Amino acid sequence: MSTTGSDACQKCARTHARLENSLKRAVDLEQELATYEQFMQRHMDRKKEDANRNETEKKELKEQLAVSKSHFESALTANNEQTRRVLQQVESKCRRLESDLEEYKHMEGSYLKRIMELEKENQGLKAACRKSADTKMFETLLERMKILEETHSQNSSFLTNSSTFQSTSTTNSASEEKLIEMNERKYQLELADPIAQAQQLIQRFMTLTDDRVRILKLEMFLDDFAYEYTLYVTALESNIDMLMKSAELSDLEPLPDFPNPLTPELMAQFEAALKKDNSPRENRFTMNTSNCQICERSIEKHHEIEACDSCGQHFHRECGRVFSERQLNCVTPGCTSKFGGANWR
Prior knowledge:
Layout lengths: L1 H152 L14 H25 L1 H13 L5 H33 L19 H15 L26 E3 L6 E3 H9 L20
Antiparallel strand pairs: 1-2
């Protein structure tokens, strides 16, 4: 009996211990559950706060989007209106320009027609004036230039004989006479103004020709004449100053030759221009002196050019050289002269 009772007590003790452990475990689980519930509650609260904040931000974004959309639509409407007004202005200007262009074309046609009529009248008037007045005008100018040149030609041999004045008794009187002579010559030059007379002669001559080569040569001739005349006057004034300072005749600088405006080349060109002006017009070729008929580019003043004497047409020298090497004819319709032949200059 005692053994059986002791076993029963031990069994109960173990059962009691297991129950206490189970109870303790249950208490621990209840605490863990409470902790978990608190954690979940805090988590749900944060979720709820985040949801509320997101909702608020979403609402604010919608409001901002609505405001931006309203502003954009207003700006777009304003830009469209401004663009429409600008487009209307451009279209209006285009219509006015088209109208002005049509009017200009009409006026241009009228002007061109009137210009052609005036050119024909001018050609007739020029021909009549040249035949009646040009010959007399040139004869008068040429005669005046001849007289002027003969008057000044006496000075060319003056200084070559200055070495003969060796006597002391006659030096002062000779210097005074030469000073008077040079001052008189200077006065005559200032009174006659040879450069102005040469310019008048050349300008009148240039009106008789439309040959660009001759015109360029005349311009170069006038520049050379003015340069040589200036050298002559400068030397004359220098000698006058030296004589004013009681210099000896042997100390004077020799005067350069007085430039002669009536060169054989100029007279030949003048006669050729008069013959060409008075010749029948029906056999002359139609020419264009402003453009090269080979490359069709303009002929400028500084370009090197050559011309056909048969038809009077001008070409760039480089263009003409190519045709000359191939022995081709002039490109002017009806002209049979070969490039670089005897009729070219």
